[in-house]
Design goal:
The chain has 680 residues and is mainly alpha-helical. It has 5 domains: 116 residues, Serine Threonine Protein Phosphatase 5, Tetratricopeptide repeat, CATH 1.25.40.10; 80 residues, Serine Threonine Protein Phosphatase 5, Tetratricopeptide repeat, CATH 1.25.40; 113 residues, no CATH class; 103 residues; 126 residues, Heat Shock Protein 90. It is built from 24 helices and 5 strands. Strand 4 and strand 5 form a beta hairpin. Helix 18 runs antiparallel to helix 19 and helix 23 packs antiparallel against helix 24. The two termini are 49 Å apart. 31% of the residues are buried.
Length: 680
């Protein structure tokens, strides 16, 4: 858990402000009915239900007004108020209307404000992907219209998303861009927020000295601003500096750095108003101070501070911080060799982390549990590694996604800059050139575009021809195979069967004769039959090889899976595979996903179902592949059972195949999983 707090004053204004830096003045009037309703909603002692009624009336009026700059400015004001009061549905309606009006009128300023508003909304909803996309769109427009103030706020919010997803390099790069803009515009509040964010980023990358430097920069900004940035920002910076020394001490095993951290935590706690006016910051400071005391063997003070912090956190009902307090208490009791209490607190931390699904706190609790519960240390370590890898994989995917969005945005901006440079060069180069030369240049450019288009069309035709050739080649292969089959059938009928028929008649005619000539003929016919037998064997081998060539790898692998299931597990397995399914024509990603779903389904049955019988079937109806996995096990309540990672993976794989996965189950009545996938 990251122990820093109240670092971004601008959260108070997540959507934007009225100062537009000269790009577009926000026009405010109060003489129309929409503004009157908006003013009424902002009055004192207005109940939330009344506010919502006034906001809806204002929106319905604005929706029917002319699409001009005044309407868009009022709609933006309404959007900010709806966001501030958490009226989510109405906010989305308002911001969508603002987006549509700004797009139609080509109003870049309000389009950027709409995107920034959506980014803030989705960030608040913890939908990091959508938030990042909308912030990136806002950034692109604000750069174009050169609105530097709005741009710095967007960049700060983007860096927060990158920081939360573990992309510390990307966050640092974004913050540096924001710092240059804010420094140029002397935006004190933004400079403070950027300094603190840079400190947190350095702290996560274990560059502790740089983190301390950034936090001290934030402290200097606070001291110069005469507390205009907000209450307790100084104490927050002192806490972060102390935390940097504490992390540095943990990393380098340095008692001196723990002692330095104590000085900063104590300096922050000198402000007597923190405990009553900001109990969350107070309990954070006491917990951090207690941990440094624990590491410097000041055990009595450490215990008192841990218990005080835990009490406040339980009163405030902050589960994440309660988990951290209990882990610290477990560490304390382990250090004083009180194993009973140490286990008690770490098990409580584990249970709460599971309940709240706070996986990073769960990792901390698992790490402590492996030290206390030696008997089960191996199990805790395995779970720690598994969960840590899962979190890291999710972070890597998010980082790659954000990086891809950023690269695409950078490429667009770069292309725009290149185009602007070309336009300027053309302007400077062709000043004084006669009109005729300009016309010739335009014609030449048009011809080049036409050639490019013709080349693309030719390339498309070539691709189509290649495809047709491949299809023709497949037809030739199929025809050759059919010819070969007919040849073998003809050889069997005309050669082997005829010879066998003749040999049978001759043997029948001399069957009752025992003279020397008859015995000699019988031996000749027996040799003939042996030759026929060899011919049949050779033809059979040819057919066997052809059949083996036709067997699809998917069928072989799936059969091996069923055989392994039968030999390894007690449940009886019956499976059916429709012979009309042409697996060699099925796409590879469908076969892979189907196999993984089948694996996961059998694994779940083996783990939880206690089934006696399992039935698996592959059936093709029209152009749809139907797959069912059914068992007669214990089953479960589908409406109450939360979907774990395995089930989510099955659903995700089904979606990846454009398929549909249905799960029907009830207690004691077994489970049936049905998968339907359209085949091209």
């Amino acid at each position: 858990m990251k122990n820093y707090f109240y670092i971004f004053f601008f959260f108070l204004l997540p959507i934007g402000c009225d100062n537009t830096n000269g790009n577009k003045p926000i026009e405010k009037t109060t003489n129309d009915s929409s503004s009157i309703y908006l003013d009424k909603a902002q009055g004192k002692d207005v109940k939330p239900s009344e506010k919502l009624k006034y906001y809806r009336k204002s929106f319905s009026i604005l929706k029917n007004q002319t699409n001009d700059s005044i309407t868009r400015s009022k709609l933006f004001e309404l959007t900010k108020e709806l966001y501030k009061n958490n009226f989510e549905k109405e906010f989305l309606n308002s911001v969508d209307l603002l987006t549509m009006l700004a797009t139609k009128s080509k109003d870049s300023f309000y389009l950027a404000q709409a995107y920034r508003s959506k980014g803030s909304f989705y960030k608040h909803q913890a939908n990091q992907d959508s938030a990042f996309i909308y912030y990136t769109e806002a950034e692109k427009i604000l750069k174009k219209i050169k609105n530097k103030e709005g741009l710095s706020l967007v960049l700060i919010n983007k860096s927060l998303i990158q920081f939360d997803t573990g992309d510390y390099t990307g966050a640092d790069r974004t913050l540096n861009n924001a710092y240059r803009i804010s420094k140029k515009n002397n935006e004190i509040g933004n400079l403070y927020a950027i300094s603190v964010m840079m400190g947190l980023t350095s702290l996560e990358t274990k560059d502790f000295d740089k983190a301390i430097q950034y936090f001290n920069n934030g402290l200097e900004i606070i001291n110069k601003s005469d507390n205009l940035l907000g209450q307790f920002n100084k104490e927050t910076c002192l806490n972060n500096i102390g935390l940097s020394y504490q992390r540095k001490a943990e990393h380098k095993k340095s008692i001196d750095d723990y002692k330095k951290s104590i000085e900063y935590f104590k300096a922050a706690l000198k402000n007597k108003y923190i405990k009553t006016e900001d109990p969350e910051l107070y309990n954070l400071l006491t917990d951090n101070l207690g941990y440094s005391y624990l590491k410097t063997e000041n055990l009595d003070n450490a215990l008192a501070l841990f218990l005080e912090s835990l009490k406040i956190r339980e009163e405030l009902n902050y589960p994440n911080q309660i988990i951290l307090s209990k882990v610290h208490l477990s560490e304390y009791y382990r250090q004083v060799k009180d194993t009973t209490n140490s286990k008690k607190y770490v098990f409580e931390a584990l249970a709460l982390a599971k309940k709240e699904k706070t996986y990073r706190d769960y990792l901390n609790a698992l790490k402590q549990a492996s030290l206390i519960d030696v008997k089960n240390a191996s199990a805790y370590s395995k779970e720690y590694i598994r969960l840590s890898d899962s979190i890291r994989n999710v972070e890597i995917l998010s980082q790659e996604k954000f990086a891809r969005i950023q690269i695409e945005t950078d490429e667009i901006i770069k292309e725009k800059d290149i185009l602007e440079d070309k336009n300027r060069s053309l302007l400077y180069t062709f000043i004084g050139v006669v009109f005729l030369l300009s016309i010739l240049f335009v014609v030449r450019a048009q011809r080049a575009r036409t050639k490019e288009l013709m080349f693309k069309q030719a390339q498309q035709r070539a691709n189509e021809e290649i495809y047709n050739l491949l299809m023709a080649q497949q037809d030739v292969i199929d025809q050759s195979r059919e010819i070969e089959k007919k040849k073998i059938a003809r050889d069997l009928h005309d050669g082997v069967l005829s010879r066998m028929f003749g040999a049978r008649l001759n043997l029948d005619s001399i069957n009752h004769m025992n003279d020397e000539e008859s015995i000699k003929k019988r031996l000749e016919y027996l040799n003939e039959l042996k030759e026929i037998e060899q011919d049949i064997r050779e033809i059979s081998h040819d057919l066997s090889r052809e059949k083996q060539d036709l067997i699809n790898n998917f069928v072989s692998i799936t059969t091996n899976l069923f055989e392994e299931q039968t030999t390894t597990h007690p449940a009886k397995l019956n499976y059916f595979m429709d012979s009309s399914i042409k697996w060699d024509l099925v796409k590879n990603n469908i076969k892979i996903n189907v196999f993984r779903i089948l694996q996961e389904g059998l694994q779940n049955i083996n783990k939880y179902a206690k089934a006696n019988n399992i039935s698996v079937s592959f059936i093709k109806e029209k152009n749809v592949l139907h797959i069912s996995i059914e068992d007669d096990g214990t089953g479960f309540d589908v409406s109450k059972k939360s979907k774990g990672i395995g089930m989510q993976n099955m659903i995700s794989r089904a979606i990846d195949c454009n398929g549909k996965l249905d799960i029907n189950s009830s207690k004691e009545n077994g489970t049936k999983i049905t998968l339907k996938i359209p085949l091209e």
